[in-house]
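Consider the following input, taken from an annotated entry for Fasciclin domain-containing protein (Lysobacter brunescens).
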Amino acid sequence: MNTKLLSATLFATLAAATLTVQAGKSANPMVGGAPMYASKDIVDNAVNSKDHTTLVAAVKAAGLVDTLKGPGPFTVFAPTNAAFAALPAGTVDTLLKPENKATLTGVLTYHVVPGNVDAKSLLAKIKAGNGSATLTTVQGEALTARTAGGGVTITDAKGNTAKVSIADVKQKNGVIHVIDRVLLP
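Applying the prediction step yields:
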């Protein structure tokens, strides 16, 4: 069997299962030990995830809270604390300094794509692109999405690849896909 087809099928099945759970009135997807509510915005959900405290601190330091609480819609590829910890020593502390706000903002907006790019539409873009799809970020540069290893990967401008570990976390102003690596423009 074609491995790309198998990967796309597995990811679509996982995404469909996630959507089914989210459609239930009493079930909410869990991220970082906290339920995520489709009735809340990106920031109001993210602050409850114990796996995204570094991301939340960075969003606050960059002054992006009001933007991500706005109407959107936004698609956010949300790196975990472990993803930030995997950066070279001192990187996060340096980015969080007030004098590096512009650089931090660039890195964070590189994780945001305008619109609501859920798993189904992302897989359709990948299929239409013969195995890959280019996503233009709010920061202005591109990310490349592909199917691999039974899921979806996102590759940044430097060639680093992040895996989507949790797809389709619906928000009132968009969707979050949790990733295992920080993307760099």
